[in-house]
Amino acid sequence: MVQKTVLKVDVSCDKCKKKILKAVSGLPGVEKIEIDGVKGTLSVTGNADPYEVIVRSRKAGKFAEVVSIGPPPAPTKS
């Protein structure tokens, strides 16, 4: 089941963003990763296990707080 996991993480510098991106992108089932440096959020969409996303984020040296886990928003029809 495709779901979207949103975590609050400290991604204040480019090195931090690259480190967490590398850690999470290796997970099986990850389809899309979005990092918002302004809001300090990491969004992972796909079949990846949310628990594993959190564990990988924390192993990358970043505190990860769960914001939401659930289905991704439906695409808008144009």
UniProtKB/TrEMBL annotation:
<feature type="domain" description="HMA">
    <location>
        <begin position="2"/>
        <end position="69"/>
    </location>
</feature>
<dbReference type="GO" id="GO:0016020">
    <property type="term" value="C:membrane"/>
</dbReference>
<comment type="similarity">
    <text>Belongs to the HIPP family.</text>
</comment>
<dbReference type="GO" id="GO:0046872">
    <property type="term" value="F:metal ion binding"/>
</dbReference>
<dbReference type="InterPro" id="IPR036163">
    <property type="entry name" value="HMA_dom_sf"/>
</dbReference>
<dbReference type="Pfam" id="PF00403">
    <property type="entry name" value="HMA"/>
</dbReference>
<dbReference type="InterPro" id="IPR006121">
    <property type="entry name" value="HMA_dom"/>
</dbReference>
<protein>
    <recommendedName>
        <fullName>HMA domain-containing protein</fullName>
    </recommendedName>
</protein>
<dbReference type="GO" id="GO:0009626">
    <property type="term" value="P:plant-type hypersensitive response"/>
</dbReference>
<dbReference type="InterPro" id="IPR051863">
    <property type="entry name" value="HIPP"/>
</dbReference>
<keyword id="KW-0488">Methylation</keyword>
<keyword id="KW-0449">Lipoprotein</keyword>
<keyword id="KW-0636">Prenylation</keyword>
<keyword id="KW-0479">Metal-binding</keyword>
